[in-house]
Amino acid sequence: MAHSDLDDFDYKNGDDKYRIIEDDNIIYRFKVPEADMVNSPAHYTRGRVEAIEVIEDAIQDAPSPAEGMLQAQVIKYLLRLWLKEKPMQDAKKARWYLDRLIEKLEKGT
Fold first, then answer.
1. Which has the closest alpha carbon to 21: 11, 33, 29, 32?
2. What is the pLDDT of residues 27-77, one digit of tens each?
3. pTM for this one?
């Protein structure tokens, strides 16, 4: 089962979610694993590289911790933009952090 299918299930039994697949008149029932929303949430692990790895690589040359943090926030919100329920909200958050980063760069830190 693909990682992106963790929220896709056919039925629930208590807290457990199950996927049903029928093949050649045989019915298979698979328990859908719970997403780990702390260590590996789906909206940060989509693709070939985890978002944290992209962010760490991108900010390593930032001129200051504050500017690196602002850049990291912009990247974070843009990377998960289409994976959350409210993409406009994440786009506006990215813009808020980008505006702050631009202000810092214009002031010279």
1. 29
2. 777 776 666 666 666 655 666 778 888 999 999 999 999 999 999 999 999
3. 0.60
Residues 92 and 8: their CA atoms lie apart, in Å, by 28
Pairing of strands 16-23, 26-32: antiparallel
| 105 contacts: CB under 8 Å, gap ≥ 6 | 67
Cα Rg of the chain (Å, integer): 19
- Measured over the CA atoms of residue 77, residue 81, residue 85 and residue 89, the dihedral's sign is positive
Residue of 55, 56, 62 whose CA lies nearest to 78: 55
